[in-house]
Amino acid sequence: MLTLWTVHPATDYDLLKEQGFYTADECFVMPERLEAYRWMSRRLSEKTPAPPGVCFPLWAWYRAQGDKHPKPDLRRSGHLEKGEKGVRIEFMIPAEQVLLSSFDGWHAVLNNHFFSLDDREYEYHEKLETELPPDVLQQEKEKSWLRIFDLSLLPDPSVYEVQAVFWRLELSSVVGVDYFTAR
After folding, report:
1. What pLDDT, in 10s, does the model give residues 85-144?
2. Residue of 17, 37, 4 lying closest to 170 (CA atoms)
3. What average pLDDT does the segment 145-158 reach?
4. Among 150, 145, 162, 152, which residue's Cα sits nearest to residue 69?
5. Beta bridge partners of 180
6. In sequence order, what are the beta bridge partners of 179?
7. 49: which DSSP letter?
8. Radius of gyration of the CA atoms of the chain, in A
């Protein structure tokens, strides 16, 4: 079992309590992020199939601020819009239902860039941008993205953030809820 945390508007927690479960709703995915979310959905479905009617995973934190501070710090800004009522939900979920990845690495996927581990790789990837046809280039980018799941590549696990994706949050898996007002 993994302990994870997710931050949502308080109204989402009300929905979780009402339904007994919570899933992602495609209508909230920004159009410019759809392809990245679809890519992550395919990776998660390779590990565990999506429930019927579920297209996109939910996101949570496994290590919000590295190994030493795993849960999100509600004193920080950026969790929700300033002044919005929110909840930090702590829950436990079987590891086989979760796909962990580097939060920083995920941004390569979001921005459709290569995931480069150092300057030498970055320069090599920049060169590929001008040499490869578009379809082959995209395949090479996606191959580099797979490394976001190799947490041994994190330079310093004590500070690097690790995110988690999973298909469904069950009310029965919740072990703690902290209400807050976003800063």
Report:
1. 999 999 999 999 999 999 999 999 999 999 998 899 999 999 998 999 999 999 999 999
2. 17
3. 90
4. 162
5. 86
6. 87
7. P
8. 17
Residue 108 tokens read as 């390569």
Return the residue matching tokens 């920004």.
30
The tokens describing 85, both together, are 């009522």
Q: Which two tokens stand for residue 158?
A: 């004590």
Cβ partners under 8 Å of residue 45, min gap 6: none
Instruction: Return the minimum-mean-pLDDT range out of 5-14, 85-94, 147-156, 172-181.
Output: 147-156
For 52-85, how does the pLDDT look when each residue is reduced to its tens digit (9 = 90+)? 999 999 999 999 988 888 999 888 888 899 999 9
Q: In what order do the strands lie in the sheet with 174-181?
A: 99-102, 162-166, 58-63, 2-9, 85-93, 174-181
On the CB side of 169, CA atoms within 13 Å amount to: 30
Q: Distance from CA of residue 87 to its chain's centroid?
A: 17
DSSP assignment of 68-108: T--S--TTSS-SSSTT-EEEEEEEEE-GGG-EEEEHHHHHH
Tally Cβ neighbours within 10 Å of residue 157. 13
Dig out the tokens for 168 from the structure.
């469904």
Q: Which residues pair with 178 in a beta bridge?
A: 88
Q: Which residues contact 118 (CB under 8 A, 6 or more apart)?
A: none
Q: Are the CB atoms for 80 and 180 separated by under 8 Å? A: no
